[in-house]
Amino acid sequence: MSLITRTLSAAVLATALTLPIASTANAAGQTVRDGHGTYHTQDQSVRFGYEIIDGLKIAYREAGDPAKPTILLLHGFPTSSHMFRTLIPDLARDYHLIAPDYPGFGASDMPQADQYDYTFDALAGVVETLLERKGIDRYALYLMDYGAPVGYRIFAKAPEKVTGFIIQNGNAYEEGLREFWDPLRAYWADPNEETAAPLRAFLGIEGTKWQFTHGNRYPEAISPDNFWHVQYLLDRPGNQEIQLELFYDYGSNLAEYPKWQALFREHQPPALIVWGKNDHIFPADGAYPYQRDLNNVEFHLLDTGHFALEEDGARIADEIHDFMGRL
Q: Which residues partner with 93 through β-bridges?
């Protein structure tokens, strides 16, 4: 197979995985648009919708009965709501689930870096607006990677709306930022082409594949669909500049950590920690400190890596069922 054929095949696969009318929907039966930007599958298990927020099409996955307890699923870098594609059906019978794609990720619009404020404040604001549009005012937060600074900003503004935390490799403590973060710290201190170079290199296919496979018990069992479709999105013109903007703004989270920790102590939301202990990006050093500030913590370290759902999705779904049943 030629390089051109392989590239086109990857592009077709990635497009099918991210468009609102997706192959996932068609596999379940006929796809129907309801006139409100939402696409329904025949069995109604997962709905692919969007809202126009600040002029941008913000895509989301949704499932379950809105009258049941809601779980807001917040994805990490460099993926999208796609990371929850198997978890959502596992939980949809008992819970209402909504998983947005941030601007620049997944099926949401991707304005260029000089046309949009790619900051964690902005991403959190988009999610808050989506919740308002959907009439969702009580929810548990699933926090993973970038989902943690997005979700904790939402929590800080309205802690009374949050019923609990489901924390999966989502950091809120400086202890959790170890040697992996040294190149990012250099970029925070002096953003220039030299300090950006190792970060740009990390946005290539080898870095993406490493994120999905490093620390896993059976890396050969991780579907390559994950990193091929993510890489297609990362390789869109201008997306590297977007990721560099967010890499830089991640440094702003460190000043927020003490504020979030104080809110944890004050409001004491129940927490379920399901953490891939072999994650080199967010190691288990970042999981333990939650127990200092939160009194009601169910703590599980899993023998897997960064994207723990890929290897331990069934276990995590079971733990969420048990946790949510006690809220």
A: none
The structure tokens 């049943």 sit at 325
- The residue written with tokens 């819970």 in the block is 95
**In the predicted model, what is the mean pLDDT of residues 181-197?**
98
- Among residues 40, 300, 306, 321, the one annotated as catalytic is 306
- For residue 282, what pLDDT band results from cuts at 50, 70 and 90? very high
State phi, psi for 273 to the nearest 5 degrees. Answer: -105, 120
Given a cut of 60, whether residue 38 has pLDDT beyond it is no
Task: Give the residue-averaged pLDDT of 147-175.
Answer: 98
- φ/ψ (deg, to 5) at 257: -55, -50
d(CA 184, CA 178): 11
R_g of the chain computed on alpha carbons: 19
Terminal-to-terminal C-alpha distance of the chain: 53
The rounded distance, in Å, linking the Cα atoms of 324 and 319 is 9
For residue 82, what are the contacts with CB-CB under 8 A and spacing of at least 6? Answer: 17, 18, 75, 106, 229
Give yes or no: 306 in active site.
Answer: yes
In single-letter form, the type of residue at position 180 comes to F
Which amino acid, residue 96?
H
pLDDT of 13: 41
- State the chain's maximal CA–CA distance in angstroms: 59
Mean pLDDT of the chain: 90
pLDDT for 252 equals 98
Write the pLDDT tens digit of every residue in 204-261: 999 999 999 999 999 999 999 999 999 999 999 999 999 999 999 999 999 999 999 9
d(CA 131, CA 302): 31
Mapped onto helix, strand or coil, the DSSP state of residue 73 is strand
Residues 6+ apart with CB under 8 A from 38: 47, 48, 49, 50, 62
Please report, for residues 118, 119, 123, 173, 262, the alpha-carbon distance to residue 249 in angstroms, rounded to integers and kept in the order given. 8, 6, 11, 16, 22
**Both tokens of residue 193?**
């082409």
Secondary structure class of 100 (helix, strand, coil): strand
